[in-house]
Write a structure and sequence with these properties.
heterodimer, B: 486 residues, alpha/beta, Rossmann fold, five-stranded mixed β-barrel, 10 helices
């Protein structure tokens, strides 16, 4: 289950769930589903905090290509 | 002295130069205040002297140009005054008000000998340039353009415009690396080296911004970091071109240029400006905190709140369960009593019905037997008759048979009636006999009944001497005593 959701979306959705749960808008029937979703979102957010996927050599290559142009 | 050569008066070059010098000295005996643009300072560090190139421009075209000399001691004094007043050294491209003597040197030609430069004039000019940059950017609607961009929640990928060896860069990296070890925040940075102060800084920074623009999709933010150079040489950040490039940059540009004096235009238009590189790094870290803390809190809140919801539900369920047991217990109890009562009634009624039906049923086989036997007999007889008639008739028509049958039936009926009449007569005879046997009839014929203690006696042995006996006649009774002697 790999969701293509950005960390920004994950963060915002998580905030929504938190406020829903705080305001008592979540019934016991939905609870399990929401908690499951929230923990997936938290995972996405925490992963983002502790990892970056940029590659210096790739950027430098792109820069060279750009500079070669007249 | 000039000589005569071939009838011509001839001067030596030196004599001409001396002549010009003398003439100029006579014509311009004093020093003068002159305003000009310092196109090139031409400072020679080895000698410490400067040979500034002065120009005057109109509509960007040079209309006058003159060399000048600024000797070491004068330069030091003037430069110090500039730095003190406007935080800028003497540099290329500024407008100056200079005090100079017009001098002609036979060997070097015409030059202005600069005695003094008024930093106040340059300050005013720089300030005017700054204000003009601000005004223009505002008029063009660019002033807040970069600030209107949306910075990613986590500015993780940072393009840094700085100098690797500078204190500012080191300060910035120190804070960032500390955040990685302390909180596990992850960053990516790439350094785009540039000059960061003085008049060459504008072009250098612009060039690197253009480079970053090409790979902007790999970055969340551009950080311009400078530090350790004091407050000097920052007027380049008021440059209109640089400020415009920052304002129009496709991703947020943040600045940590490190100074205590007035904000420059570049800092004003930047997405975020921090006083120092350290503060700028802290600004980024704060963004991470703003993301990380709610995530942590969300985890706690959700766990806590979920527990509470479940507890509440459990309590509700428990109460409801209790209520249910109590209500339904009563209902079940009542129902059970009714059912018991019903069973009792049912048993009684069923028993009764069964009994009744059993008797009726028991009679049925006998009736069926009798009925069947009788019907069978009749059928057989008819069959026999029919058969016989059929045999007898042979070719006689069925109509005849049926007529015969009817006749037969009539005969049977008459015979039955006759039989019944005979039987009735016989019965009447029996009835008469029975009448004769009645006690009254017998007594009438002279018989009597003798009783002892109300009991009829049929044997003399039943009577003892002295017994009181009662003899019933057709009419009346006789009481007598049995002779005791017999």
């Amino acid at each position: 289950m790999k969701e293509q959701i950005s960390y920004t979306e994950a963060f915002e959705e998580l905030q929504t769930i938190v406020s829903e749960i705080e305001e008592g808008e979540i019934s016991v029937d939905e609870l399990s589903e929401k908690v499951k979703r929230a923990s997936a979102l938290i995972k996405i957010c925490k992963n983002k905090l502790s990892s970056t996927e940029e590659d210096v050599s790739k950027i430098l290559k792109e820069l060279e290509k750009g500079t070669d142009k007249p | 002295m000039p000589e005569e050569i071939s009838g011509k008066t001839v001067f030596s070059l030196y004599e001409v130069a001396q002549g010009i010098r003398a003439t100029l000295a006579k014509a311009y005996p004093n020093s003068y205040w002159i305003k000009a643009e310092l196109n090139k300072l031409n400072y020679y560090p080895h000698s410490g002297h400067c040979y500034p190139e002065l120009v005057e421009k109109r509509d960007n075209k040079i209309t006058a140009q003159m060399r000048s000399n600024l000797w070491r001691e004068d330069y030091r004094r003037i430069n110090a005054a500039f730095i003190q007043l406007i935080n800028e050294p003497l540099k290329d491209g500024i407008k100056i008000l200079l005090q100079a003597k017009i001098e002609f040197h036979p060997e070097y030609g015409l030059a202005l000998h600069i005695l003094d430069i008024d930093p106040g004039y340059t300050l005013g000019d720089l300030e005017r340039e700054k204000q003009e940059s601000i005004k223009r950017l505002k008029e063009e609607g660019l002033f807040t353009r970069n600030q209107e961009l949306r910075m990613p929640l986590l500015p993780q990928r940072i393009a840094i415009i700085s100098v690797e060896s500078s204190n500012g860069f080191a300060d910035f990296m120190k804070v960032m690396e500390n955040a990685t070890t302390t909180w596990g925040y992850s960053f990516f940075h790439l350094l785009f080296p540039s000059l960061l102060q003085g008049d060459k800084a504008v072009d250098s920074i612009l060039q690197q911004l253009n480079q970053i623009k090409k790979v902007a999709k790999h970055f969340d933010v551009v950080a311009i970091i400078r530090g350790g150079g004091g407050d000097i040489g920052l007027s380049c950040y008021n440059n209109y071109k640089l400020a415009k490039q920052i304002a129009l940059f496709p991703i947020p540009v943040i600045t940590g240029i490190g100074h205590a004096t007035n904000q420059t235009v570049s800092e004003m238009v930047a997405f975020e400006n921090a006083i120092t590189p350290t503060k700028l790094a802290e600004f980024i870290i704060q963004r991470f905190h703003n993301f990380s803390i709610p995530v942590q809190k969300a985890e706690e809140k959700i766990i806590d709140k979920s527990k509470r919801i479940l507890e509440e539900e459990r309590a509700k369920l428990k109460t409801a369960g209790k209520l249910l047991v109590s209500v339904f217990g009563r209902v079940v109890f009542n129902e059970r009593a009714q059912i018991r009562q019903g069973i009792k009634i049912l048993c009684l009624q069923t028993g009764f019905i069964l009994k009744t039906n059993k008797e009726a049923i028991a009679g049925i086989p006998k009736q069926i037997g009798k009925g069947t036997e009788y019907l069978l007999g009749q059928q057989l007889q008819q069959l026999e008759l029919t058969t016989r008639a059929m045999h007898r008739g042979g070719g006689v028509k069925l109509k005849d048979s049926s007529q015969g049958l009817i006749r037969l039936m009539n005969q049977l009926q008459q015979m039955a009636i006759l039989g019944l009449k005979e039987n009735r007569l016989a019965l009447q005879a029996v009835e008469k006999n029975l009448e004769n046997l009645r006690p009254e009839a017998v007594l009438k014929r002279g018989y009597s009944i003798t009783r002892v203690d109300g009991k009829a006696i049929t044997n003399s042995a039943e009577v003892n001497p002295g017994d009181l006996i009662c003899t019933t006649l057709h009419q009346g009774e006789v009481i007598s005593i049995v002779n005791p002697s017999s």
